Amino acid sequence: MWYTIPSESGFKMRSIYRRELGTILFIIILLVFLVFNRYEIIGINNKKEDKIVINYVEKLIQNNTNYTLISQNDFDTFSNVFMQNNDRYISFYINTTNGKTMQFDDLLKKKKINNFYDKVYELLALKYPSFIVDGIKNGEGEKVVEVKENEMIMYFYDYTFNPNYTENITLHVNYNEVKDYLNFKYKLDNEYYNESGYDYDKNKKTVALTLDDGPSPNLTPRVVQALSNNKMHATFFMVGINVRAYPQTVQLVYNSGNEIGSHSLKHANLGKMKMDAINSDLATANSYFNEVTNDNFKLLRPPYGSMHSEMVNSLEMPLILWSLDPLDWKYRDCDTVVNNIMSVVKDGDIILVHDIHETSVQAVEKILPMLYAEGYQVVSVSELAALKGATLQPHVKYRSITNESNN
Ligand SMILES: [Zn+2]
Description:
The chain has 407 residues and is an alpha/beta fold. The chain has helices spanning 7-63, 113-127, 130-138, 175-178, 220-229, 240-245, 247-254, 275-293, 309-314, 328-331, 334-342, 358-373, 381-387, and strands at 67-74, 78-85, 88-95, 101-102, 142-147, 151-157, 169-174, 205-212, 235-238, 259-262, 319-320, 350-354, 376-379, 397-398.
């Protein structure tokens, strides 16, 4: 009932407010002082450690005018000064208590150094072909590492590869992957992604590899392995009777991220057949494929590239031809096939080889690293179309797929 109290009480209320206001102001001033004081304490510490690093960097730049500072990352016991020296990076680790230089391996737990590098090779193998991983694992070169808040970025210089590869090799290593091996305080991301060699780039030169007439139980798995070794994909145009004969090989290809298309039931010359015979041939081939994979063929490569216009108009499938034919079935010689491909290959090509000849499979094993080294991505026909911004359409014949042909 205080609202019935006479006016003098109202005056009292206001003075109470004034006193409280004074207290609040006092507390605010105290907090500001405390925060400022604390900031000062941290500031003094930082200044001391900063001086060590600043002096170090100044000396570096004085002694080598080619050095430019790229980043400086501070940790509990050291600071990483990451610089550019002409066309490459160079990294320094400075012990912030005594100002001495440390080696990169000093940042790792002594007994875990091998585990750390095993993990690095494992992550490299997710991103790069095996010929590059082997070159780094077994060869000699220089590793330069930028140590950041949540990850390290590794640069690999002066390693030799077979075939010769000269592009920059870099690897982002998230601390989640190596946390048990680090000898400093790190920050962990809740989410992160390892780099993958299968993240294809639409700005790179790209070709589709196609393998006809299989599957072969002995040779097709070698092609799948070679593709996997090089972070590549292909399209296998399979013959229906071989699909039925070698279901395990079909499964292997189907589960490997590669694409499978139809090459008719028995390698028939469809261009010389009537429509109902063609329909029944392709339906039987598809039923064999469906029995193994529960999936249906979405692409057709007519044997011999033979087709008539009625067939093109009535089949609800894109017709995949080729732009690069090394005539591997005719020469049956690995080096000839390699040369026939490498001498003319260009962006957007659809390359035709047969995974039923030993010499053709040898040639595939040889050209994949060579194509990688020349900057090519090797993918399936559907992936080539997607990377070139094209949608494969039924009733359309495709010989190659380039950006120009699909704008
Ligand atoms: Zn064929």
